[in-house]
């Protein structure tokens, strides 16, 4: 079951798998780009990468007709994952301790040491856990029948996150300083990225784009995001302090960026020159 907040958040990454524009101030490239093969995977999405370079994400498993989460360890071994008893599972975030957050059916969850804890925002029809930092603070969103709202879960307490004037707010990541990034949607369902720090919101809007959204942030304040232009072109970029750098991956048609870790390593979903959609990890980036 795909919820409103899910369809407006991480699935937005698929929308960004388009040809890259040329308005950024330089590029962000990685010395090593390694594909992540996943058996029976259709439209795989890499959603987060932690300090030890463990990647998490999700994919549609053609062999069973459902969405599966996956882990990819730094040694290259891939594990598929379903929350026990669930029909579908999405993995969205992972911290350096290996605690994972995501969603199954209509619930958010965290998983640590093999123990799954369900996360449900009180009174919501569905909840998603999108990101987690090394302090265990979690950000995500919850749905009503008409819109999605953001939350911060810290110390067992929920705090609502809502960009002023937005109809939906989707936080996607939080760093160890408590800086939160994500995207919000206006009444026309156009999106913009946002930063929430020290109680204030700042918009991230790629120059000339009709839609933008932030996917991840590391402890150095580097933000990964994507954009779409009016003509349907778009791409992924790294952002900090008003500077945009397009992400460049060799032998690909397009990049939909997922996340960045403290070393600047990234994970993304790419469309190859042959037209297939794959997950990759980029290391030694600058």
How would the blueprint of this fold be written?
Layout: H1 4-7, H2 12-15, E1 27-36, E2 41-49, E3 55-61, E4 66-72, E5 78-81, E6 89-94, E7 100-104, E8 107-112, E9 115-119, E10 126-132, E11 138-143, E12 148-154, E13 157-161, E14 168-174, E15 180-185, E16 191-197, E17 200-204, E18 211-217, E19 223-228, E20 234-240, E21 243-248, E22 252-260, E23 266-272, E24 277-285
Parallel strand pairs: 1-21
Antiparallel strand pairs: 1-24, 2-3, 3-4, 4-5, 6-7, 7-8, 8-9, 10-11, 11-12, 12-13, 14-15, 15-16, 16-17, 18-19, 19-20, 20-21, 22-23, 23-24
Name the features.
286 residues; mainly beta; Neuraminidase; 8-stranded mixed β-sheet; 4-stranded antiparallel β-sheet; 3% helix; disordered N terminus
Structural features, described:
The chain has one domain (4-285): TolB, C-terminal domain (Neuraminidase, 6 Propeller). The protein is globular, with a radius of gyration of 17 Å. 3% of the residues lie in helices and 56% in strands. Strands 18-19-20-21-1-24-23-22 form an 8-stranded mixed β-sheet. A 4-stranded antiparallel β-sheet has the order 2-3-4-5, with no helix packed on it. A 4-stranded antiparallel β-sheet has the order 6-7-8-9, with no helix packed on it. Strand 6 (89-94) and strand 7 (100-104) form a beta hairpin. With 286 residues, the protein is an all-beta fold.
